[in-house]
Predict the 3D structure of the following.
Amino acid sequence: MTEGIEKLKCLIIGSGPAGYTAAVYAARANLQPVLYTGREPGGQLMITTDVENYPGYPDGIMGPQMMEDFRKQAERFGTEVRYEMISKVDFSGPVHKVWTESGKEVQADSVIISTGASAKWLGLESEKRLTNKGVSACAVCDGFFFRGQEVAIVGGGDTAAEEALYLSKLCPRVHMLVRRDELRASKIMQERVLKSENITIHWNTEALEILGEQEVKGVRIVNNQTKVESVIPVQGFFVAIGHKPNTDIFKDWLDMDNTGYIITKGKTAHTNIEGVFASGDAQDNVYRQAVTAAGTGCMAALDAERYLTEKGII
C-alpha cells in the first residue's frame, strides 16, 4: 500500500440520522467504520429546534441534542468520527477511493453515502433571521406547532401542494404564495388544493419580507403583475420550493434521477456501483424525515455487512 493512503473496511460519508445510524450498525458488526461528517455535522437537524415526531422522545428533543446523542451512540461502539469533508471520489475499481478536502486519500472496501439534502430557500434576510422562529422548510416536521393559527406557504409544485394540504388540516387558513398564474403540481394535487376551502392561493405573488422580530407576525408580498404590495398577517411561514440533494461529487459514478437523488435498487441501499450504498435524504425525495433516514442508514449498514461477508473481506 502506498504510504499515506489509509485502507478501511467501511467508510461513511455524511452524518445526520442516516450516517450515524449506519455507523451504529456497522460498528456493532465490527466493520470498524470511519465517518466523515461533512461541512454540516448532524445535517439539517442541527438547524431544527424541537423534534417531537421521533419515537423514543416523549417530551420532544432539540435537533442538535438529538444528533449529539446519535453521535455518542455511534462512537460508543467504536465509530471514528472525523470532522472533515470528502471532496472527490473514484469508484472505478473494486476498492473505492476518496479524497478529503486536505488532500488525504482514503480507500474503502465499502462506502455508505449519507450526505443528505439541503432545503432551497428564497434568500431573504428575514427568512434567515426567523428560521425556527416561525419560518420552516418542513410542514410535516413543524406544522403541529401552528395548530389553530394562520400560515403562509411558498411554492407551486407537488411538495408545496402536499404541505399546504397537510397544514390545512391543522390551521384555519393557509395562504399559498404562487409566483406564476398556475400550479406546477400534478393534476390530482392541484384539484385537491383548489377544492380545499381553507387554502387561499395568491397567484403571481412573491414574498418580499417576513415580518416580526422574535416570531413571525406576517409576510409582505407583491403581485408581480400589478406590482401592488400588501401584508398578510400569519404566524408561520413555510418554504416549499424544493430540496437539493448533496450528491454532486458522485454524479460521474452513480445513477441519479434528474434532480440529483441517488437511485437505489429495489428495497435495498445498493447503488449501481458494487460496494457503494446510499441512505437518507441523498436518495429519498419522498419522505425526508429523520426516522426514515435512520431506517435507510440501518439498511445500508446491513447491506454493506452482507456485501463484505460475501466478498470474504470480513
About this structure: The mean pLDDT is 95.
